[in-house]
Amino acid sequence: MRADCANCFGLCCVALPFARSADFAVNKPAGQPCSNLQSDFRCGIHTQLRDKGYPGCTVFDCFGAGQKVSQITFGGTDWRRAPKTARPMFEVFPVMRQLHELLWYVTEALDLAPARPVHKELWQALAHIDGLTRGSAESITELDVNALRGEVNTLLLRASELVRAEVPGRKKNHRGADLIGAKLSGAELRGASLRGALLIAADLSGADLRDADLIGADLRDADLRGADLTGALFLTQAQLNSAKGDTATELPPALSRPAHW
Fold this sequence. Notes:
Blueprint: H1 55-58, H2 65-73, H3 86-110, H4 119-133, H5 137-141, H6 145-164, H7 237-242
Helix pairs in contact: 2-3, 3-4, 3-6
C-alpha cells in the first residue's frame, strides 16, 4: 500500500486531470500525459516539483494503486506498447486508488488494540476489498465505491470511537467543521474528532493532536510546527505532505517527516 513508482506506468501523471493553480503550473486533461513524463515513465522534474510550480504532485499518494493496476490488472503491459489498454487502464486507476486507500485505513484499524471488538469485521472487510482489487478491469470500473466506502466507514468510525474512549476527559467534536484559517495554536485536541474537517491554513502549531481522528481532514497549508500527532488516527502521508511542520512536530511511527519541512 505504498507507491512503487518504478513498477508503475506513470498513471498519476496521465490518468488524472489537473488545473492551473497554486498546485499546478498548467492545465492537463485526464488521459493526457504530463509534459514532464519521460519515456521510462519517470518524472523529469521530480526533484524540482515545488520549484517548478507542481506542489500538487508532491502531496499525491496512490497508496500503491499504480503498481497494482500496472503489474496485476494489466499484467505488466504498458499503455504505450498497447494503446488499446490506455483508456481502460486510466479508468481503473482512480477506482483502484480509492480501494487501496480503504485498505490502508482498514489495516491501520486492525493495528489498534482498543478496536479489537470490531477486528473480525475489519478482517472480513480487508479480505473483501483485497479481492476486489484483484478483479478484472471491467469489474473494478463497475464497482459502487461510494457504497463500499460507506460500509467501511461505519467500521472505521467504530474503531475510532473505541480508541478515543480510552483518552481521559471530554473529547471535542469538530467532525466536518469549517476551520479554515482557524487560530488553534496550542489547542487541546487530544482524542478529538476532526473527521473531514476543513483545516486549510489553520494554525495548529503546538497543538495536542494525540489520538485525534483525522480521517479525511484537509490539512493543506495547516501549520503543524511543534504539534503532537502521536497516535493520530487515520492520518496519511499525503495529509502531512500538504501541511507545514518542523523537526519539533511529533509524528506517528508509520509516517515520514516531509522533506520540505
